[in-house]
Amino acid sequence: MPIESGSCASARQAKQKRKSHSLSIRRTNSSEQERAGLQRDMLEGQDSKLPSSVRNTLLELFGQIEREFENLYIENLELRREIDTLNERLAAEGQTIDGAELSKGQLKTKASHSTSQLSQKLKTTYKASTSKIVSSFKTTTSRAICQLVKEYVGHRDGIWDVSVAKTQPVVLGTASADHTALLWSIETGKCLVKYVGHVGSVNSIKFHPTEQVALTASGDQTAHIWRYIVQLPTPQPTADCNQMSGEDEVEFSDKDEPDGDGDGSSDCPTVRGPLTSLKSHQGVVIAADWLVGGKQAVTASWDRTANLYDVETSELVHSLTGHDQELTHCCTHPTQRLVVTSSRDTTFRLWDFRDPSIHSVNVFQGHTDTVTSAVFTVGDNVVSGSDDRTVKVWDLKNMRSPIATIRTDSAVNRINVCVGQRIIALPHDNRQVRLFDMSGVRLARLPRSNRQGHRRMVCCSAWSEDHPICNLFTCGFDRQAIGWNINIPALLQEK
Fold it and tell me: Spans of the WD repeats (predicted)?
């Protein structure tokens, strides 16, 4: 009989607790609108430089945080009451079971076990709730700073490289495994020119520093120099792709990729042949770039060499040998006669042509897998990315060890540095694009959802610092390039 009455009492107590808990939640919900109104009035009375939309978003987020913690506090109180009740029941059972007394050690063991279970439940609830809040906050903030502006769809196979013209009119160039290179209007997303001179995959594209001329490298063992003439169409209003979805990460299948059969490149003007063809390699030409001034060009090949050419005569000036395996990329310094080549042999090499009579070479070792790219920054720094999932920042005056190392969760492809702001864009095999500063601090991750972002490996990134609409471009093996607007002042302020 005492046990039955105790059970009835426990049932009544539990019922009262549930009733009290529901009343507390109703009181919380009923006061939310009043609290939100008061907070808005307080914010409006403050002198703030934040836009009203950002302030409202922050208000909603902090309101969610307050409600979550209030609910956690109420649940915490209920759990503590349950612990006390359980301890009382254990003590009562210790006095009545078969008239035998349980030792203090046994009671302590049972009580500790039950308390541990409830404490673990509380911790799990707390972590899940706060993690959800923080994730929501980070996602919203990232989307406010990094917005998808335009998608460039028209290739029939993956896009290996993306580049932005250095002269007016400013256009976007893409190089694809479908054997073509396309030029695009950045503002409208319309294809302006199609180059079809190669008979193999087009692996890279770079624009001449002063003329409307492009340099492309191909799997047909050549690099082509070709001229283009474009007339930009009238820009149309751009839809805000950032508002298309509120989800952060989903899985995709091949059927989600852009339909190549409905591309917009079939009716654009076509350039069928080059002005000059560079033909000294015995393997795939994986990359090419212009030296400062545009009178010479350098190519990198799977035949383990890099070649330096005179553009006007197409003659081979230097053959750069030394890498033990296939080359993966080459890049030139924006103001000096310096070239950096990267390779599958886990190294990258710096070639110095500032003295016309002799060229020197320096070898950088530090990666444990293929170096996918190495690029120059302003000053004496080189940034390298690798399949070993790291990015390293190097000082050209001290080649023995990097001055900063960025560790990631996926292989890194062709990186690019925003020279003016010293921000590195990292395209990954896992479809992500992340932004870091030169000291290795992560600044942002470009948003991905079920309706925006890349659906397959991101191959390359390219900054265009002065463009008013898009200042970062990415391309991937999902056959599309994407233009992003990165609010750099806000990004650096977040840091």
Answer: 152-194, 195-226, 278-319, 320-361, 364-404
